[in-house]
Amino acid sequence: MYIAQALRYRYSFWRYIVGIIIVAIGITLGQVPWTFAVFMKEGFAMFEMPQTELLSSLESNFSLFLLLLSYAVGLAALFFAVKYLHEQPILTLSTTRKSLDVKRVMFSFLITAILIVGGIFIGYLLEPESFQWNFNLVPFLILLVIAVVLIPIQTSFEEYLFRGYLMQGIGAFAKNKWIPLLITSLIFGGLHIANPEVASYGYFIMASYIGIGLLLGIITLMDEGLELALGFHAANNLFIALLLTSENTAFQTHSIFKDISTPEILGWEVFIEILIIYPVVLGIFAKKYGWSNWKNKLFGKVEKPETLKLSEEP
């Protein structure tokens, strides 16, 4: 039903192509301030600098602010495309419920926060030598403000784009649910291939990105809305940014701890994450919200609603 909501509005293929172009333009324009700031400091040498050096070129709070700003512009561009190109209410891109269920968002946020904080705490107990105390009050407080305001915007943009816009768009033409679930997860994971983490830890870490894409896609389809995915993604990025940074990550922050371990392929961590933690998360949500009929919700057909608002075929 969540995917089928797109069929009530203007869903021609060309509209999704134009929509993606609008979003790409928005993200590009949003990156101009960061690019300009780096250019003013590094000059033309920036075009020859490795990505890790580029990301650390500016003061980390300032750099994080400018980088996250681009997602705010991207989200505005996406909402513009949905509202004016598809003539689709943002609510129908968000959920099948009468309004966005904030309690769902907060419950998912809380569960994920507990998992992130607990995971970092366990990691510290097992390998304290891999952690360096990095806390500095004033820079941390600035980071806290930036992170609390802008990281949820960044993660919301990604959820609305992948689990919302693309999930509904691909599903509208595939006429089933598993193809958009798989494709959006692969695209979501693939777009992280340029992250410094991949160069540091190896391509095996891509399984983690694709895995989290699958998890967020599954909970979106099972729950018939983005609320749980919005809460999960926001908590994941927010608490990692506040608690743990590394020279090998895309976002280098004034976090409480710094990971100083030697980069290596994290096979066992990825294994635990995908095969243990994610199923536990699904189990908690399934129990809380009484999910059932998994086969139909994940592999069923996408059927056109009986009454369309606009009689437009793809």
UniProtKB/TrEMBL annotation:
<keyword id="KW-0472">Membrane</keyword>
<dbReference type="InterPro" id="IPR003675">
    <property type="entry name" value="Rce1/LyrA-like_dom"/>
</dbReference>
<dbReference type="Pfam" id="PF02517">
    <property type="entry name" value="Rce1-like"/>
</dbReference>
<feature type="transmembrane region" description="Helical">
    <location>
        <begin position="201"/>
        <end position="221"/>
    </location>
</feature>
<feature type="transmembrane region" description="Helical">
    <location>
        <begin position="12"/>
        <end position="40"/>
    </location>
</feature>
<keyword id="KW-0812">Transmembrane</keyword>
<feature type="transmembrane region" description="Helical">
    <location>
        <begin position="228"/>
        <end position="245"/>
    </location>
</feature>
<dbReference type="GO" id="GO:0016787">
    <property type="term" value="F:hydrolase activity"/>
</dbReference>
<feature type="transmembrane region" description="Helical">
    <location>
        <begin position="105"/>
        <end position="126"/>
    </location>
</feature>
<feature type="domain" description="CAAX prenyl protease 2/Lysostaphin resistance protein A-like">
    <location>
        <begin position="140"/>
        <end position="239"/>
    </location>
</feature>
<keyword id="KW-0378">Hydrolase</keyword>
<feature type="transmembrane region" description="Helical">
    <location>
        <begin position="265"/>
        <end position="286"/>
    </location>
</feature>
<protein>
    <submittedName>
        <fullName>CPBP family intramembrane glutamic endopeptidase</fullName>
        <ecNumber>3.4.-.-</ecNumber>
    </submittedName>
</protein>
<keyword id="KW-1133">Transmembrane helix</keyword>
<feature type="transmembrane region" description="Helical">
    <location>
        <begin position="178"/>
        <end position="195"/>
    </location>
</feature>
<feature type="transmembrane region" description="Helical">
    <location>
        <begin position="60"/>
        <end position="85"/>
    </location>
</feature>
<feature type="transmembrane region" description="Helical">
    <location>
        <begin position="138"/>
        <end position="157"/>
    </location>
</feature>
